[in-house]
Amino acid sequence: RTVVGMLGDKKVRMTVSVVTMRSIEVRNSLIQDLEWEHCFAISGMCRLIGQYVAPLMVEDLELTGLLHDLGALVLIANYPREYEKLVKAANLRDMPIVDAEKKLFGVDRNDVLLHMSESMHLPSTTMQTMRMMSAQQVVENIDSTVDTHLAVLTLAHHIDAMVQDEEGVLPIEKVPDSLSALKQKLDLTDENLDQILDEYQDLLNSVLIA
Fold it and tell me: Alpha-carbon distance 23 to 70, whole Å?
């Protein structure tokens, strides 16, 4: 009670989520380390975007960004060698990672996350967002909390791809909608996007220095 009172229930939920996700780590796995970096990067980006489009939702958006690839971490933890080979093959063929996962395992990261959702009591908004993203559903209008989460999560992936090295180790991800369309739907200007990019680069630099 004291911890929740001091930090707030959302910060405690974030901490518990990270600890739970860390419990499935594999030692000496470059792919898992990169996937963790991706989850933290997207989480940070969701928070940055949220400060411009939905200030009251930033912590929930941050959590959605953190949890969005939990299914991938589970696959890597259970099939570390197979996953290393899968990533190399996907990169050689320019194949989206979810297609490669589906081909090898019969399920992809989103299927795994959705299967775990009830037992882990994951936030319903996050899970609805991931169902829509898995189905490559495009947000027509920002009419609900889930619409906001999906638009922000998708935009975060577009921006992350802009600042990462073109020859990255992790394969490409499928994300619905375009950068320009998402900017319009979220009512973001080019100046807003430049500011977000600057803040994101500062965030990445601080992580590298740490």
Answer: 12
